[in-house]
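Lecture 7, part B: from sequences to assemblies.

Below are the input chains for today's worked example.
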Amino acid sequence: AQTVTQSQPEMSVQEAETVTLSCTYDTSESNYYLFWYKQPPSRQMILVIRQEAYKQQNATENRFSVNFQKAAKSFSLKISDSQLGDTAMYFCAFMTYNTDKLIFGTGTRLQVFP
Amino acid sequence: DVKVTQSSRYLVKRTGEKVFLECVQDMDHENMFWYRQDPGLGLRLIYFSYDVKMKEKGDIPEGYSVSREKKERFSLILESASTNQTSMYLCASKTVGRSNTEAFFGQGTRLTVV
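Predicted structure of the full complex, as structure tokens:
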């Protein structure tokens, strides 16, 4: 069975600083996707970034980037130049090639303060 | 703009009532999902559907059933609501295949069973 672990229930960062959220996962599959989703106070889940396991290059979307370590089964999210609007719950998620089901971690609540 | 709409943002029901949570998507997606979100537990999959009238149990199906009579609509049914079903419920949809892996979410229904 696949599992996703987020070991940081809460984090805080000052505006304009950089923060890294951790995620580890466990699977015996070799082909899969990893995601970070953001859930702001409005409750609308939004895809932040995705990574295909076969791609060695780390995904980047503007201020958001990942550090994907396949051998270590680690998938951390780095947010650069943090903004107040980044305040949200962040969920790490996993999906194998042969299923469309997302498996989520327990989430990290990020607070960005001025 | 893609849209997944859940019929209620907040719902209060009495113990023993039959409860229907409705979800509609306008993207012609084949797959639809119901998740339950609880603090410290993340999102857990209740049921998903990969086609009209087709369904599969997720990780926590006990006490729930689903209905998908039309492609765009996926209903979650609590046959006899109990207080331990007080939670946030999120609906999601996505297309099949590896060409587009993004899942789209509704804004959630916060259900309180009293």
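Note for the exam: Chain A touches chain B through 22 residues (CB under 8 Å). Keep this in mind when comparing with the next example.
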